[in-house]
Amino acid sequence: MSSINNTAEREAVPRTAAHEEADYEQAVKNLLAEAWSDWPNWAGFTGLREERGPFQCAVHGNIPAWAAGTLFRTGPGAWQIDDTPSGTLKLDHWFDGLAHTHRFDIVTTGDAGGVTVLYSSRHQSQAYVKHIQEHGSGDIVTFAQRRDPCVGIFGKMMSSYEPAAVNNNLSDDIKNISVAVYADIPGLTSTTGNTAEPQKSSGHRGMPETVWLTSDNSKMRRIDPETLEEIGTVNQTTFHPDLKGLISATHPQRCPRTGDFFNFNLDVGSNAVYRVFRVSAATGNTEILATINRLDVMPAYIHSLFLTEHFVILCVPSTHFLMGGRKIMMERNILDAIAPFDKSQHCRWFVIDRVNGNGIIAEFESGAGVFFHSVNSFEETTGTGGVDVFCDVVEYPNQDILRSLYYDVLINRNHEGSKFWSNERKGRGSLIRLVRYKLQVPSLDSTASTAPTKQLKIQRAEEQLVIRNPHAGELPSINPNFNTRRHRYMYSLCNRGLSTLFDGIVKTDTNTREVLIWGNCPGHTPGEPIFVARPGSVDEDDGCLLSLVLDGHSKSSYLLCLDAKTMTELGRAEIGFAVGLGFHGLHSRAKDATQPSEVA
């Protein structure tokens, strides 16, 4: 593994707005030229082991003591299941990899601000794997597992008339849930179907009362924060009986002031219905804030939503489900049920009052596109009594990104990566742009609608800011103290065309368009950067970033700590073996990690 004493590797590369177009075009050229062919991602997808530990990692450099706490990470691990009725099942898509959750305990030692880092992990899909080994995968809905060609048209037709038989009749344990991690979701603390209580941790570790894993469905899985063992699985009817749909956002929103929890529930079928809801942190009660049940609003794949001080914003992108969503039941997966991309199918935006119960107060549209992740949203009052709502989102020009994440493409198996990236349209379609949309919301006097079928005048969402890859990237994060407030900095994973996934961590200044890119170690694939603010800090970028990085050359991973101001490496904790390339994480600060230490 490379030493952090190498100054060239530690320092970030600065770029300005003047470099943006050239850097984007160079990324496209690199993809076409297969510059990614020497970037080894294979170790992040295969031979991944469970380590219940915990064991102590080797720490190099200086991870600040004020970053002490617990970092949870989740995502796909193994992608092969042996001993099924038809032999070895190879999962097709990264989003369907088998659930594997990881925990890092960053513990202060009391020695001049030093820390110890402990690592442990656990598989969360044993029941899922056992079911497939015994019965096959035909009765399970996935994100993109290709259908068995032996299933004829009659079987597909029957499944479209029997949606309740798909997944719903299976035990809740037979679910593969591992995209994002959330703590202490209101309304669920004591509702798990299991009486196990979380263990209490020492003050040196930040341990939530409950930890939940989420995915793109309405199921949520509770795990023990100490052992990572599964405790129970619930669906959104636990919140409210009307939330009976199978689809929801992986990324709900939490109000930073009240702790209230916001999400949507989508009930697909001939009469598809969106229900946007809030769960009160104070009472645990759930209120449906808006219901959307209209022929002009299609059921769609939606990964996240937006929240401001007064509004919830739902954006319906151009990922519409065929047959009102019944196609999901026919194909037994999400991706093949999405209609081909159509530029005429614009994104629809719904601004929903979350304070006074006025329902949908404004509707907007923007050009056709696809997105996974909202970044942040905030609002500013105007001189006319209205409100300008700003929504930052990482978006794509079409659906190509969804197909770039098949394992065959990621690891270039059977030259599928070469086939995909040699198509320039697909390359451009898989590179993000960061967009800040402005939604001009008029005064509430005459706009509110709680009726599910009433349509307001549709306005145009204005693009206020556009920054393209690699000056912005995927899996974005900000200083969490700026949630629902105007922020300046975003941290994300960029792709300069050197990898089939990500090849750098980029800090984007949305005011000046200047960026800093960490990524001078070829073959080192970073994971989602998680911002940890320095206690008592004033500056928005005063903190550190934690990212789980795979060194593909040595086939081992390390927890990287970067100075969030300069994007230079502060320290790392070496694990000694490869950890799966996952999705999202959560840092829970230790109760006594309040004294700032010097960032050096």
From TrEMBL:
Keyword annotations of the record: Iron, Metal-binding, Oxidoreductase
Residue ranges of the region described as Disordered: 191-210
Single GO MF descriptor: carotenoid dioxygenase activity
Cofactor binding summary note: Binds 1 Fe(2+) ion per subunit.
Cofactor(s) needed for function: Fe(2+)
Positions in coiled-coil regions: none
Pfam family, one: RPE65
Record's keyword annotation contains DNA-binding: no
InterPro entries: Carotenoid_Oase (IPR004294)
Polar residues bias locations: 191-201
Annotated positions binding Fe cation: H251, H303, H373, H584
Any Gene Ontology biological process: carotene catabolic process
Family designation: Belongs to the carotenoid oxygenase family.
Record's protein name: Uncharacterized protein
